[in-house]
Design a protein that fits this description.
The protein has about 325 residues and is an alpha/beta fold. Helix content is about 30%, strand content about 30%. The chain starts with a strand and ends with a strand. The structure holds NADPH dihydro-nicotinamide-adenine-dinucleotide phosphate (NDP).
Amino acid sequence: MRNTIKAIVAEETPDGVRGKLQDLGTDQLPAEDVLVDVAYSTINYKDALAVTGKGKICRSFPMVCGIDLAGTVTESSAGDFEPGDKVLANGWGLGEKYWGGLTQQQRLRPEWLVRAPESLSLEQCMAVGTAGYTSMLCIQALQDHGIRPESGPVVVTGATGGVGSIAVMLLARLGYQVAAVTGKADAVAFLTELGANEILPRDELDRRARPLESERWAGAIDSVGSKTLATVLVQTKHSGCVAACGLAGGFDLPSTVMPFILRGVTLAGIDSVLAPQEKRQRAWNALAELINLDKLDQIYSVEPLARVPELAEELIAGRVTGRIVIDVNA
Ligand code: NDP
């Protein structure tokens, strides 16, 4: 039984909000039913915004950062879980409203937990993480809309990011033709290896779009927003579907209604944070089946908890390719 744990804790400072490595007493953990020994967490875009203070993510302070975690249950007063169970959690306000995953232990509500798929290790679960789970929600939105591999190419924006890179990998595995949009000139080999058939420079979409342009995409997964999303919409084929999940390029959407009323394009909003349990389990089950573990190995690095503040700065600066898994005990 430990008395002290290490965690990345965001606090208000005279220079704004900053997340730093701190020692916490285990008696400070929230009074929730399930105690989890965390093995791995990750740094997502939202975590980077929280840790650097570049976005208003934390609703109260001090806040243990980290929107996801994977670990082993060590205590539970909830019937659903018992010590030894391997679990993971994404979203639900972790690292925003409730203490999150960048810590060696956390107390959580049972309804926030998903059983870790048996075919994935805890490290692999976090290599997939919120980013991979969000990619799968996007893909399932396209599938539910009837977009099949034979419908035509699917474009993925922010393609070297966490969401984008896993989306490229999964779409290719499902047999879709994938066009990857990236701002990184040196990412061609990385994206081709993941399964992209075509690579487009970011500038080609990050511009003022016309009300309608030539139809190119049967579907799209957009983690960028703003002008990029607007261009994707006007290039989407009749009856196509665009899954919008992110705002790495901005939260505005400078568009018109033309793609919707003249081409029947659907804009599907994706929210992983409050997605209901059955949607999560469906996404994780599909991920466990589809993920190519050799390719997954190539898109993540494992880093210690102490490096989180530095890595968060790099992620915000757009210098990170793929996923960063945090070994909270390293
Ligand atoms: P990453 O930082 O890993 O990836 C974002 C990628 O977007 C970058 O790698 C880069 O890819 C591209 N990008 C970065 N800055 C810009 C810019 N200014 N203009 C255009 N493209 C840019 O983040 P994640 O993959 O973790 O998250 C992506 C987005 O999705 C974020 O906005 C995040 O908040 C959101 N998200 C939403 C979720 C939801 O539930 N809706 C869940 C998870 C994430 P490249 O260099 O290849 O162009």
